[in-house]
Every structure is written in C-alpha cells, then in structure tokens.
Design goal:
The chain has 5 helices and 7 strands; from the N terminus they run H-E-H-E-E-E-H-E-E-E-H-H. It is α/β, with parallel strands linked by helices and 163 residues long. It binds 2-acetamido-2-deoxy-beta-D-glucopyranose (NAG) and copper (II) ion. 2-acetamido-2-deoxy-beta-D-glucopyranose binds next to helix 3.
C-alpha cells in the first residue's frame, strides 16, 4: 500500500504546489511605500513571477500608486487619465511578464523623494506548453496554470485504481 500513498501525496502536491508558489511581496518590507527609500535596491535579487502580488502599504492619503510606462517612470509623470490606487494597502497581482513601473503621484514624491519602483516580471513556473493562447484573456491565466497539475493528479488517481 506504500505505493498508493505515494501516488496520493504526488497527486495532492501536483495540485497545490503551483498555487503555493505564488508569492506576496510587501514593497519596501517594514518601511512600506514612502519617500527616500531605495526601491531599486529592495527589488534587487528578488524574482517576480506572473501570479505574484505586490502590496503597497502606506498611511491612506499620504501616498498613492500609479502604474506607468518606462518613459513616465523616468520623468516621474503620473498619468492624468488613469486611476491611482489610494487605499493604503494596495495589492497588485502581476498579471503578465515584462517590465513594470510604479510611481507615487503625490506632490514631488517621485521626482524628489524617488518614490518609484521598477521590476521585471518573469513568466510563470508552469511549462510553456501549457501557456494559454494570446487570444485568451489575462483573467484566464490564473486558472489555466492549474490545468497541467490536474492532469498529473488524474493520472495519479488512475494509477491508484490500476495498482
Ligand atoms: C507613457 O505614458 C505617458 C503618460 O501617460 C504617455 O503620455 C506616453 O504616451 C506613454 N508612452 C508610451 C511609449 O506608451
Ligand atoms: Cu508619495
């Protein structure tokens, strides 16, 4: 029966490991989201993957969070059209790979206080064969990353039945 238990454990791991691997990053750690903190140093050596979360913590009203492009990041221009996150406990799920830029749009916090963060988001750990087609919406990505794991789980269960 030891092999049956092994397959059950394997099947359970296959289902849950992809979701466990999604990480939450508290931006600036205990310092949170504020001025005069080196967010580039903070981001150094960290690996950000699709599905991970960034949490920006700050006293509500003191700061905000704008996602911007690279040009706006360099020039510290918070886009007028887009809505800022303002709750003081703003969670952003990294939905796509690539370079991402965030700035504070309050006063000269970005320009003078260097309250800006640039990161590179890496593709999910799931093998590329299971990646959704480009036509699928980004909302589908979270659930589709579980699919191969389910296949392994079903395979494991089939093995248990056959043994
Ligand atoms: C970057 O963002 C700024 C401000 O929203 C906008 O004016 C500019 O056209 C954008 N640049 C690119 C290359 O998308
Ligand atoms: Cu600010």
């Amino acid at each position: 029966m030891a092999s049956t238990q092994f397959f059950i454990i394997l099947a359970i791991l296959a289902v849950f490991v992809p979701s466990i691997s999604a990480k939450e990053f508290l931006v600036g750690d205990e310092t949170g989201w504020t001025t005069n903190f080196d967010y580039q140093t903070w981001a150094q050596g960290k690996e950000f993957h699709v599905g991970d979360k960034l949490v920006f913590k700050y006293p509500e009203g003191a700061h905000n969070v704008h996602r911007v492009n690279g040009t706006a990041f360099e020039q510290c221009v918070a886009p007028a059209g887009t809505e800022a996150l303002t709750s003081g406990n703003d969670a952003i799920t990294l939905a796509s790979p690539g370079r991402k830029w965030y700035v504070c749009g309050v006063g000269k916090h970005c320009e003078v206080g260097k309250q800006k963060l640039a990161i590179t988001v890496l593709p999910n750990i799931v093998p590329p064969a299971s990646a959704p087609s480009p036509s699928q919406s980004s909302a589908m990505r979270g659930s589709s990353s579980i699919d191969p794991a389910w296949m392994v789980a079903i395979f494991g269960i089939l093995m248990i039945i056959m043994v």
